[in-house]
Amino acid sequence: MKDINEDIAWAKINTDVLKSLENPRKLYWVILAVAIAMIAVAVGCETYQYQMGMGVANMNNPHVWGLYIATFIFWIGMSHSGTLLSAILHLMHADWRKPIYRFAEAMTTFSLMTAGLFVMVHLGRLWQFYYSLPYPNERGLWPNFQSPLLWDAMAIFTYLSSSILFLYVGMIPDLAICRDNIHSGWRKKLYTALSLGWEGTDRQWRNFRVTYLTIACFLIPLAVSVHSIVASDFAMSQQPGWHVTSFPPYFVAGALYSGCAAIITLFIILRYVFRFEEYMTLSILKKTVRLTFAISMVWTYLNAVEFASVWYSHDVASKAVLIQKATGTYAPFWWMMIFCGSVVPLILAFKRFQTNIPVLLAVSLLLNLGMWLERWMIVAPTYSHGYYPWTWDHDQWPSFVQWGIVFGSFGWFTLLFMLFCKIFPSVSMYEVKEMVYHRTLAKKNLGSAKGAH
Amino acid sequence: MHRFLRLSILLISLFAASSFAADATQAVKMTEDSLGPLVEQPIEFPHFRHAGDVNKEHPEKGGMQIDCMYCHTFARRSAVAGIPPLQKCIGCHQSIESVRETPRIKKLFEYWEGSKDGKIAAKSPIPWKKVHDLPDFVRFNHERHIKRFVFQQNRPVQEACGYCHGDVKTMTVARRSKTLSMGFCVDCHKKDHLVSAEGGTAIGNQAYWYGFKKPVVNASAPLTAKGPNDCWQCHK
Amino acid sequence: MSVSNLLENWAEFRHTHPVDDVPHDPYKWAMSIDLDACTGCNACSVACYAENNLPVVGKEKFLHGQSMHWMRIERYWDEDGRDFPDQGAQFLPMMCQQCEAAPCETVCPVGATNHTPDGLNSQIYNRCVGSRYCSANCPFKVRYFNWYDYPTTDNVWPAEMSQQLNPDVTVRGKGVMEKCTFCVQRLTSAKNTAKNEGRIVHDGEVQTACQQACPPGAISFGNLVDADSKVFKQWKAQHVEIAEFEQAKDRGEQDNKLRGYRILEELRSYPSVMYLERVRETAV
Amino acid sequence: MIAGNAISDRAKDFPKNFAKGFVMMDSSFDRRDFLKVLGWGGATVALTGCGFTSVEDGKETVVSYVEATDFMVPSIGVYYNSTCAQCDAGCSINGRVREGRVLKLEGNPASAINRGKLCGLGQAGVQHHYNPDRVREPLLRNGEKGEAITWEKAYALIAEKLQGVSGEEIAFLTGAMSGHTKVLLENYLASFGCKNHFAYEAIAPGVVRAANKKAYGVAMPRFNISKAKLVLSFGADFLGSWVSPVHFSQQYGQFRKGADGQRGVLVQVESKMTLTGANADRWLVVRPGTEGILALGLVNALGTASGDVAAAVKDYDRARVSKDTGVSVEQIDKLVALLKSHSPSLVLAGSAAEGYAHGSQNAAAINLLNQVLGNVGKTVVGPVSVPFPQMSPVVGNTAALANVSDALDAGKYKVMFSCGVNPVFSAPTAMKFQEHFAKVGFKVAFAHYLDETALQADLVLPLDSALEDWGTSVPEYMAGDDAQINIQQPLMERLHANTRGFGDILLALLKQRNPESYKNYTDYYAYLRGAVLQNKNALGGSGADDDEFWDASLSNGIFKLAGSVANLSGSISAGSLSLPNAPVADAQYPLHLIPSVNANLRDGRNANQPWLQESPDPLTTIVWDSWVEIHPKKAAELGIVEGDIVEVAGKNGSIKAQAYLFPGIHPDAISVPLGRGHEAMGRYAKGFGVNPFHILDAVFDKETGELAMHETRVKVSKTGQRVIVVKDEGAAGGKQMGKKIAVRLNTDHVDLSKEV
Amino acid sequence: MSQRHMLALFNNFEEAEAVVRELRGASIKGFNADSDMVVKSPIEHPEVEEFLGEKPVYVQWFTLGGALMGGLLGFFLISGAQANFFAQVKGGKPIVPFPPNFVLTYEMFILGGVFVSILGFLICAGLPAKRSPLYSAKVSEDQISILVKSDDSAAGELKAIFTKHQAVEIQEEAGK
Q1: Do chains E and A meet with 3 or more Cβ pairs nearer than 8 Å?
Q2: Is residue C5 part of a domain?
Q3: Most exposed of A74, A414, C44, D27 (fewest Cβ within 10 Å)?
Q4: Does this complex have an ipTM over 0.85?
Q5: What distance in Å separates the CA atoms of residue D266 and residue D252, rounded to the nearest whole number?
């Protein structure tokens, strides 16, 4: 099985990809409509919450965070796949990333935006959000730079802006293609403006290469720092179950894991919706699936390490939280997380399932569910079983407001993502050409080597 | 090489600009807006006539140099300066025949005696409009500032009050003269102010906290301390 | 915020006061609560409602764990499996412990909660954006969040009830974290009076609302820097040090005749509230 | 007219000067002016405290005083002393007033009763005052509705209705009364020749009073808890709700520290743990109703009694007592040893002991133990009485209700007044009070709220709150060595224009009867001032100027005067003592119903104060609702878990409430708190909880005729519904889970003498 | 002498390579192979660029400068802001604590690096740019093109070389 067919004509690549900007399958519009409906639910819930106060989300004194922060971490985690595919695999010269890294990067950007929304939704006084931004003001006040939340804000800002820039810079040659092939309407203007007059000259390519590589190098430590900082929100706190040294790597692994799972899902959807069968080949899917399997095992291992270190240590309170996770009210969710996160991926180890699209779609959705549950299981059980037994809560169940907003966030992400794919080429044309070119060269070399014999 | 020159100039100026921007945060810009709207009072109170300096040439234009705290008696005893009771105005004006028939004074007496049309009941308070209004979560303590600067350091009252209220002796108060934003307050609290023991404050090591640096007591330089810098001083 | 300020005062900025090398001066507010005298009567809690404009949230919200009592009386039973609690219950008034190294302070993204020079953990309502991180990180869970807009949409002070509100204390709107302040409005007013007169606040000059109400007089409050204050003497007598996480009592010194302890001391947050253990007669 | 002491917080040391200041202002200054509610700029509370910055220059108006005196400084609180009216203990309060509004009530340190302390109930007085559900106009029944009328019309109506009614046909039902109001009331009734003044308190130590009277010669001696080394309390919840809880709590604080470093020991004997029981060193659970048996058993075991006492107790050997009461023999021995070693001790008989048909016998047995221990004269000492018998308190009891109910049933009364009581709420259904009450031709209720009784009335007269009214009162339990008359004075201007003080109303009614004698008194204030100044010498003001004395007295909030200390009659006798045997199990109604008295809600008259509703019950931490306390063992037997809605059914009806498993109760008893379950009264009271008063059996103490509150037997059954109990206690259920949170030490590990 | 631009399009990379090699090898008067020749390609094509001779890239210097500036600015901004609250400590930590400041400095380091790298890229690559005088949309599809600028005199010679190597198309534009 080939990653890509080397006989594919370059001009066809252009037309195929550009076609995705114009006429996707009907399913595209269905997804869009569903996404908008989901957003409407979230907007309704948020408006209600904004009017009435956070109480309508049914949080209470020990349970101050609820689903919002859990989902926030989920979305942050989701964003890591883009970096993995575009930066890490780029440095490793893994050619098979080329057809799929663009949408992964877009996923990074939009899941970060969604995550950012959760920070806002979660705030008790959304209208005072600007208090947490460091800017000179007439109050003479600065935010508290000691707070992991502020590190978070800083890291996410850095990550988001860098990701957008990375996505954009990597897209400039493709934007030039769009500019050259689309001759009317607002799109023409948009592509002309965004392509910055790219012509593919040797000077441009030369600087492009170095810049792209440099940013890729920056993005890798950045991505690691972002999720480990999100982990510090918990690890830097004093609460049992949160104050765990292994949280940062654990979070990063979880992030890559959920990101990969999401890539599989979106891969399958995009492949169908935009008729990308020739580019997003099953061979690439197989590689992604194998990567996912590997990461799932890393995650499983780190999970086990976390439990083991809690279990083996003398921290009674943390141990109590762990026991409560496994046996208390949250037990069904906790075990479901273990099942989805560690057992379900075993399916991926079987070759016959590695290219079975319906199975993969189901598995990837289950993995995502597991990863979402993981985040919830990090946040909530500590609240109902903290240091202070008096406040151990009758386990609090999120109200429809929380569920509605979490639900809607998926719509919001889908909408942004789908719009992106419709407006910008979601398969990197110039890099697929490179890929094809490299394969042709390789074949030629192989052929000439054969001929020499 | 000129490209590198350009580049380094660019970088240096970027750094300088951002440092400057960060550094200059405390300079509070005062715009027309930050002084609040012009307010129409029930009686346009001529502060300049009461507190203003004596004008020898045109005595009718000058003031009487009345101390701020003659009328605003609460300021030195309470966090709230308050408005003088009507009684206070009447107390003097009862015996000032010369202006008794001017429109403003007539209006004043309407609040004391009741208006002829019955719209104002006798002894009803004058509905002054607030000009120096702080948000409800800010508690400015007039008493402490006056004790500190007027009584302990013998600064002129006009100067102490005027720091926030402007040059009252030349005006009727229709709008603020200072922004009274938080930056305005903090600006002042960050400055080193003279601390004099003669006024009676045994500051002890308080100055350490308020000035964050332990004062050198026996040095020749005068002892100074910063204003309180903890939030609970003004917000409770 | 200038670089020159940083360079000039670098050493000051690197001090880890107040727990470490720089002591409090002239004030460090602290409390001690004698659990042997505490009867659990809730007078302190009501006094706190009255003094600090606490909203009554009602049955529904209390059910959801959204109550707003800054001071709560906890009641513990013995856990030895007997049929009857024949040594009574154990009551514990729990409010913000005003930790010296408060876990809540570092995590607030906007710096709405800070340590004041007189050793209090301040909470600035109007600065709060409602991230609730402080509460998440509080080991005692004594921070209370305004889940609803109690003054307006919830109307907990209908009609004339709002006239009872204490003008010295801000009424909190929705989305704001709040907690026990050691009645800071009373402290500030006492400190101002003292400053005007060029002295420090005497012991007993200022009382917190709970202390003032407490019928058996179980609560003492005062200035831990002032060697004449009752609180100082009590802490001293019990060999409880503010910046320690293990006291003479825990180390088994002083023949174990001490009964002063602080709750969750091992977390090294250095609470400012010392409790005196409840005593029970063995002869009966 | 002037009045009042006003002490700005920094001038507390100079009350006299301030009093003088008032005198000087006499002619020009109206107190009401000062009490006027003002919205001071910057000093008022804005309800949007920390929302958006609410600076709107020039929009808000600064309100200023028209005239001000020296002490009137905006933003600085002024303190007035007055008297708490939330219960009958008579604590003195110190109210903080700012800008004409009373903000907070604190204790008055000058009062020997509470010494500057105040309980939660007392502090909630402001919520009574500012309550949105107060009656604001006189209301005349018009069908099912009340129609607002003027006071003139109300007075005229009363006069009309009283026309041709003889004194015998008028009844006046009140709570406890004392002071000048009582004098006026007696005068009013005397003007008809009416003797039907009934003082009713739903929860009152009526039996104990009678037993004390027998044993010591006075109904309410002073109990020196702080001087006792051992307090043995038979169900007296003196820290919670019994007689004068703030005073006792304050004494308890000293008692625990011990005057000479010897810590006082508290042993509580009862079947349902009260707040006091929860604080005891040893809480002894006894079979309900057997408190007297244990007391006699202790007398016997002490072995110091002689004569008829020894004869009376000789049958009460330890084995029998242990069998009857359920207290183990070893425990009795320990207790006896402790009683011997800890002298003086103090034995108290409380509501758990008196609430039976043989309550008087129980109380007598307990008092006998006190006498045998020789505590009389040491920890039980004579009270000081006020030298004005006409002002001394009429105490309320439940026997009064039984009497009035019977008389109503007989149709004796044509006009009935009710003031400060709510018998429709607090009378057992078995008494049929409501039915009997309906027979009265014209019912007048003096009321703060439209409570259950006021709703039955034909005319409702709205009363001033205690914080706007004048008055004096004499506490029943006189705590100090001096006699004390409490003064009640307004802390602020009347909140509602059309409410009146009870004294004012009585005066107006008296003027109808007797215009000549009262024509000099424009209002109750004038009457009060006149009456006080008339007796200036006796009140400790001999030689003082009238105004000065009056102002100083108001400034103190109390009159302290040397009263006479009553001697306690000390004869120890067990002559009339005859305790019934331990109760036998009732097959149909196997459980004893113990109606418990919550320190905050008591008989329910304060139920409409939200602070009290949300103040968790100390033992269960339940708020806003009633509950049924069941011992976990019993609950397991019945298959009941926490939150089950159970039906508590007795002979006279049933109630349904949530179950709470409570270890501090005898397994044969259940307990339901009183005070909740209002069907009217206001938004915070109505519809929360159930009212166990209604299912009480109409059983009375055989000697005194008091309602035997603990005598009701019930059965408990599940209804199948379940709710989540609304309480402060979390999921850990009051366990510390191995953490060091609330810690307890044994006495041998403590050296209190070294403590500060 | 007037100059003219000429754009040759090739289907084949080898051909284009050969052209570049030849142009650099041949010394044509009025045409400087180092400065007057631009290769445009649809993909990043380091092999072709190699034949153009060593052309240095400076973006990494921007990166270094930006990262350093970001880090410094971050540290001083944060420490300076913290110094504002000189009487308020938080959690018993110093007013200017290192661990959090390092985290933030790290982030600012990266942020500065990325931003200034992009800036450097735009500067170095001359973007945004006006279109060069001759451009064919075919370049963004699959053809490689060589744009030359030369004196009129050299045009013929260049054209000959292009044609020789099977240029698909040659566009010309008269110079000024």
Answers
A1: yes
A2: no
A3: D27
A4: yes
A5: 9
- Tokens standing for residue B225: 């301390």
Spatial neighbors of C159 by CB under 8 A, at least 6 apart, are: D130, D132
User: Mutation test of the interface with chain B: which of D54, D57, D71, choosing the one with the most B Cβ atoms within 10 A?
Assistant: D57
Average pLDDT over residues E60-76: 90
Sole residue written with tokens 């204050």: C229
In chain A, residues 60-99 whose CB comes closer than 8 Å to chain D: 62
- Going by their DSSP bridges, the two strands B128-129 and D61-62 should be labelled as antiparallel
| Residue C74 forms part of a structural domain | yes
C-beta of residue C170 within 8 angstroms of C-beta of residue C126: yes
Q: CATH for E3-56+136-173? A: 3.30.70.260
What is the C-alpha separation between E38 and E32, in angstroms, rounded?
11
Give the number of domains in chain C: 1
For β-strands D265-270 and D230-234, DSSP reports them as: parallel
Query: CA separation (Å) from B57 to B61, B167, B170, D366?
Result: 9, 22, 17, 96
Residue D12 has pLDDT above 60, yes or no: no
Q: Are the Cβ atoms of C5 and E93 closer than 8 angstroms?
A: no
**Percent of chain A scored above 70 by pLDDT?**
98
Q: Report chain A residues whose CB lies below 8 A from the CB of D736.
A: 389
In a domain, B1, yes or no: no
Within-domain flag for B10: no
Distance CA C94, CA A159 (A): 42
- D206-378 is classed in which CATH architecture? 3-Layer(aba) Sandwich (3.40)
Query: Class of the D591-722 domain?
Result: mainly beta
> Which DSSP state fits D686?
B
Domain A19-135+142-438 belongs to what architecture?
Answer: Up-down Bundle (1.20)
- Look up residue C201 and give its two tokens: 């606040």
Examine the pLDDT at D54 and tell me if it is beyond 50.
Answer: no
| pLDDT tens, residue by residue, D134-143 | 999 999 998 8
Q: Which residue has the higher pLDDT, E146 or A1?
A: E146
B-E CB pairs within 8 A amount to 42
pLDDT of residue D38: 45
Region of C98 please: left (phi>0), alpha (psi -120 to 50) or beta: left
Share of chain D above pLDDT 90, in %: 51
Chain A CB contacts of D732 under 8 Å are 389-390, 392
B100: tokens are 């008794």
Average pLDDT score, chain D:
86
Range of the domain at C71: 18-276
The residues of chain E that CATH labels 3.30.70.260 are 3-56+136-173
Tokens of A135: 């800017």
Q: D and C: touch, per 3+ CB pairs < 8 A?
A: yes
Residues of A in contact with C127 (CB under 8 A): 131, 141
Residue D306 in tokens: 């002689």
- At B229, the amino acid letter reads N
Please tell me which of the candidates C103, C127, C136 has its beta carbon nearest to residue A64.
Answer: C136
User: What is the span of the domain harbouring residue B190?
Assistant: 181-236
| A265, pLDDT greater than 80 | yes
Look up the CATH number of the domain holding residue C23.
Answer: 3.30.70.20
Q: Does D75 touch chain C (CB under 8 A)?
A: yes
D589 touches D658 (CB < 8 A): no
**Residue C127 belongs to some domain of the structure:** yes
Q: How many domains does chain B have?
A: 1
Phi–psi pair at D266, nearest 5 degrees: -115, 125
Using DSSP's 3-state secondary structure scheme, residue D280 falls into: coil
- Rounded to an integer, what distance in angstroms lies between the CA atom of residue A322 and that of residue A385? 9
Task: Determine how many CB atoms are found less than 10 A away from the CB of residue D493.
Answer: 17
What does the alpha-carbon distance between residue C107 and residue C98 come to, in Å, rounded to a whole number?
A: 15
Q: What tens digit of pLDDT does each residue of C194-238 get?
A: 888 878 888 989 999 999 999 999 999 999 988 999 999 999 999
* Amino acid D736: pLDDT: 87
E86: chain B residues, CB-CB within 8 Å: 212, 226, 229
